[in-house]
Structure to design on (377 residues):
């Protein structure tokens, strides 16, 4: 049986829509989910250009971005991030304080327990007691971190 | 002795001319190729600029594939090369200024060879079927493994040129694992852009170009026969 061009187009659109929806749901499921209302105590060190701060942070949420946001909010430090849109909805930290990515060839990068992070801050799940270091340094950075 | 061109040069020049449809005899075909090429590159640029803030949703892979289907000879290869240049200029310079330009240049080798492979795959899709729903469905289906292959290839390139060195020190399996969500998003991108650009180009070739050049490639109810010539 030969399907008409219109029927083929409708079938194609249906298969396409189902495939995109399925993939969309799969990507959304890859985002870390934190316990609602849960808090996490971790340590944080932020080293910018000519300034640094070390703090024990109690954050609502479980990601490195939640931790940084809690610290920025409590310390009154400006934090800007660039959203990367759906479906991953990831964020890239653009500036902390007065230091913005690209200035002097330096960028904000972070390490968890002294190991370079393998995902964006909002996709990196922390555990109780983890230590995070944010450094405003050239890329690649081979200097000391911890 | 120097006034005459050596034979190999003449052969090279002739082949170069044939590849780009140079000369008065190929004027109509050259004009057609340049118009299609310009539209595809414009789609890649506009799409990339509009979607600069959406990770891995981008039209370049789809443009490379459709370019392989509708363009001929050297114009097929020009699409990924121009796409790479635009990618470098627009993305690296505008959005990531100063971000390790030399290392990104090394990674570019992997980007462009990946897109070239996609374009060449497009020429194979083109040679077998006509331009209609079935063609676009086949191109869309083909784009899925091509997207995965392109992502694996460029992830390997990223590991080889950037992320196996300090401060990252990532192993190849770690890089490939990190790539998974981005590849899924890239597949979504291909599922969106291959039909969009494919149907758009199909309409343009079948209705706009065919109307302007009625003797070049007549359309039919079965779709437009794009011929069997490959790059």
């Amino acid at each position: 049986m030969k399907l008409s061009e219109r029927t083929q187009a409708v079938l194609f659109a249906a298969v396409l829509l189902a495939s995109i929806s399925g993939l969309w749901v799969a990507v959304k499921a890859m985002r870390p989910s934190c316990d609602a209302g849960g808090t996490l105590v971790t340590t944080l060190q932020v080293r910018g250009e000519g300034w640094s701060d070390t703090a024990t942070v109690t954050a609502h949420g479980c990601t490195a971005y939640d931790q940084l946001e809690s610290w920025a909010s409590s310390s009154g430090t400006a934090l800007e991030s660039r959203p990367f849109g759906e479906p991953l909805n990831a964020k890239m930290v653009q500036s902390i304080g007065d230091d913005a990515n690209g200035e002097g060839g330096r960028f904000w990068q972070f390490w968890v327990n002294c190991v370079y992070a393998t995902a964006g801050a909002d996709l990196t799940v922390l555990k109780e007691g983890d230590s995070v270091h944010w450094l405003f340094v050239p890329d690649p950075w081979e200097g000391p971190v911890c | 002795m120097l006034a005459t061109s050596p034979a190999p040069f003449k052969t090279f020049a002739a082949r170069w001319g044939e590849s780009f449809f140079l000369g008065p005899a190929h004027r109509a075909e050259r004009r057609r190729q340049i118009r299609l090429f310009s539209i595809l590159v414009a789609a890649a640029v506009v799409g990339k600029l509009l979607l600069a803030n959406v990770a891995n949703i981008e039209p370049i892979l789809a443009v490379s594939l459709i370019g392989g289907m509708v363009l001929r000879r050297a114009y097929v290869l020009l699409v990924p090369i121009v796409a790479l240049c635009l990618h470098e200029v627009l993305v690296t310079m505008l959005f990531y200024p100063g971000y390790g330009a030399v290392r990104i240049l090394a990674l570019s080798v992997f980007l462009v060879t990946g897109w070239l492979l996609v374009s060449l795959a497009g020429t194979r899709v083109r040679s077998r079927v006509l331009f209609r729903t079935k063609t676009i469905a086949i191109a869309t289906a083909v784009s899925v493994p091509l997207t995965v292959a392109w992502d694996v290839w460029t992830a390997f390139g990223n590991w080889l040129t950037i992320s196996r060195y300090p401060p990252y020190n990532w192993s190849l399996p770690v890089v490939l694992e990190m790539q998974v969500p981005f590849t899924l998003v890239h597949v979504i991108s291909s599922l969106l852009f291959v039909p969009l650009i494919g149907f758009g180009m199909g309409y343009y070739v079948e209705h706009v170009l065919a109307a302007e050049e009625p003797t070049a490639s007549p359309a039919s109810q079965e779709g437009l026969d794009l011929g069997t010539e490959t790059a």
About this structure: The CA atoms of residues 70 and 203 of chain B lie 12 Å apart. The radius of gyration of chain B is 20 Å. Confidence is low (pLDDT under 50) at residues 216-231 of chain B. Chain B touches chain A through 34 residues (CB under 8 Å).
